[in-house]
Every structure is written in C-alpha cells, then in structure tokens.
Design a protein that fits this description.
single chain, mainly beta, four-stranded antiparallel beta sheet, 2 helices, 10 strands
Length: 163
C-alpha cells in the first residue's frame, strides 16, 4: 500500500463514471441504485470480465517503478453477491504473468470491510514489479467469477510516478 504520496506525482489513467452509456455495455447501465450521477454499472451472470485498463510499461512511465491505485464504489446487496467478485491487476511478459495481485470483494465482506445494502468505497494499491522488458503488459480488470449481480460506479485508475 502506498502510504506516503509526497514523493510522487499522480495522474488519472482512466475513469469510468458510467454517465454516458457505451453501446457495447448499454444493457449493464442501471438507474435504480446510484452512487452519484445518472447511472451505475450492473454486473450480472452474462458479464464475467470487464477490462479497466491495459498498457505496456514504457507507455505507463519512464521511471523504474510506479504505483497504481484503483478506486471504485461497490453496492453488494448481500454478502453472496461478492463471494467471488475480484479486481485483478497483473503484469505479464510474453503472455506469462509474473506479478498477479487480486482483491476479492467476498473477503472484504467476511472481514466486515464492506457493508451490504449500501455503497462502499474500495481502494487497491499496486506497486509495479521490476519489469523484464518495457513491452511487458499491465492489465487491470474485474472478474465476476461466480457471475453474481453486483453494482459498481465511479471507477478511477491512477498512476503515481516518482518526483
């Protein structure tokens, strides 16, 4: 976890506020339970993966490392909704993963870090590895392993580079 941000400058890599529906995902936009704005995004049994960001290391930073922070809001109606809903951050070299980190929302429900029946803010920090090549690829995505119904909103991926 990035504890001291003072030695870094940050910039937003991607932001999903779900205010303007993308044609490809239009059926997943909902208006019945919102964090802020007009829409939230509903995962269901038909959506297993949702890509948030993908880039090679050299397009991320010119430094030897960087921190990534993924922040989002989630609304689990029940603990079962998040039993296997996972945020994945992964670096790979020639399609072979070498720093794969996950955050399972079901675990956060079990340890009471998330509350059901309300919007919760989630934050996940990830330190890039010592890359093997500048062409190594970072992928950030949601994996709805159990194909449960779950709402998310206001997703931001931010990069922190050394000063």
């Amino acid at each position: 976890r990035l504890r001291d941000e003072s030695g870094y400058r940050s910039r937003v890599l991607v932001n999903f506020d779900f205010e303007e529906p993308e044609k490809k995902y239009k059926k997943y936009y909902c208006t019945d339970s919102l964090h802020v704005g007009r829409n939230a995004f509903r995962f269901d049994s038909t959506l297993v993966f949702f890509n948030l960001f993908e880039a090679d290391f050299t397009s991320l930073t010119a430094y030897d490392h960087a921190w990534l922070r993924v922040e989002f809001y989630v609304f689990p109606e029940t603990g079962a909704d998040t039993s296997d809903f996972v945020l994945v951050v992964d670096f790979s070299h020639k399609n072979k993963s070498y720093k794969y980190r996950t955050l399972n929302l079901g675990t956060l429900i079990k340890n009471r870090s998330l509350q059901t029946g309300r919007w919760n803010k989630v934050r996940f920090d990830y330190l890039t590895p010592e890359v093997r090549s500048g062409k190594d690829v970072l992928k950030i995505y949601f994996w709805n392993k159990d194909r449960k119904t779950l709402l998310v909103d206001d997703i931001t991926v931010r990069l922190f580079e050394p000063l």
